[in-house]
Amino acid sequence: NAHIMTSGVFLKLTGEQDLPAASNRKTFDQALARGREILYYKEGITATIIVEREPGIGISLRINGRREAGERFMRTQVLLAHIPILLSLSNENRIEKVLVIGWGSGSTVGSILRYPVKSVKAVELEPVLVQATSFFNDINHRPLEDPRVETIINDGRNYLLVTDDDYDVIVSQPSLPWITGASNLFTKEFFELGAKRLKPKGVFAQWLTTDAIAVEDFRSVVKAFQAAFPYVLIFETTPGDVLIIGTKEQLVPDVERIEAFLAHPEIAKDLARIQVAGVYDLFTLYLFGKSQMEEFLRNAQINTDDNAYIELFGPHHYYQTRPSVLRDTNFKTMLTHFIKELSRGEGLWDREEPSKRETLYLKLAESSLSNNLWTRAGGYAEAALRVRPSPQGYYLRGKTLATRAEWMDIKDPQSHVAREQLLHQARQDLETALAMDPEIIPAKFTLGLVYAMLTQYDRAIEAFERALQGSPGYLEVHYNLALAYEVTRQLQKAKQHYQQFLELASQSVAFANFRLIAQKRLQEIERIP
Fold it and tell me: Do both 18 and 138 map to the same domain?
């Protein structure tokens, strides 16, 4: 039964992805197969490959039962191409030759081909996997049709051992370091092979999943990586996935050069499909680098060919802990080092001259906020304020605190004290910003939200009205002002602002749910005698 053989039962034994409850073998088999449409199934020399369509997941590729690529992985697959390529170009490196280890759905190779590279060699151990590429033609840019691509059926490590070619960029796509067959692609010796085949200004990129490894395993892989590459940067591509970047020379990303490449329509379009709108969206994904690496790796056990540390202990740690706990613990650890790096003035751009550094950090704070990365937004706003106290810096820090308080109210309604503290800190920052520059309209609006969350509705109304004076068509202000007037029983004014909101938002898809609420509130007000 193809459904059973490729369901990845071995990954479902942690208690988080529960095996289906069933009274007998037949109903158990039916439950595992439910909703899965098999498009391609073939047993290869080294792996069983399946392409399937599942509700809510789309088309995905399973290798020996584990999902490895497909629509659900698009963000990581695309960033695996763009981040190392852009970092290399930023380093004034001309990219001619790229090596990709692991084919997946072909999407990473397809994204690399958006750039003017001369050749891409893709090394894949299992030929059956490459044969399945056509099922992903709608998302992978059809890389096999590009004459610059050469697929090599071989073990990635063996290829590095015997090739004489040197590369500008090397991308290694296997992501789970304790799986037999891939585990030898995460050792010190493998990364040293990669370093030997990398040009002096080249970039090596390694994908690593963090929801299937413990912190000590994560640190073990990174320590092996650092043994080969003296300069290491860590990016988070999506919750549960990181990209480890290694270089032989110190790399300070040149934002202007990267912006110039992102202006190319094909590159911009490829990133837009994963909601990356520009260089600052890209760098909100950066977590920490060399300055924090020594502390992060202190007392870590290095993963080598001889000790096979990850292959031995990785599964043991995985089956002891739920994947979500592993992911969250790894993420919190990385965020701790992110904050330390920024607060100590050791960030990527801390050697830039002050005005440029301030601009970078303010823009990164704005982008982090728009992507709901609040810890990073707060960290960058703090970093900008350390360069120079500015109204924009206080506004962004205040907005970050207010957003965190609002989210805390949703996720943990019992945390009243912590929420109140955040709101009062946010109020102080926003008032400071407006004292320095009274014309920051978003600061007036955010201050109104803070007062509303503090149930100081008269002050909230005053702040919202001030915001409308500068921007009469501000949709969110009309909506929240209507709510505040309704709470204070000023129903005619509430009605007026609900009506203005509905008129202004009549064509807005983003405000569709708010329109429904406003219509309902308006109907209730009109029923009051």
Answer: no
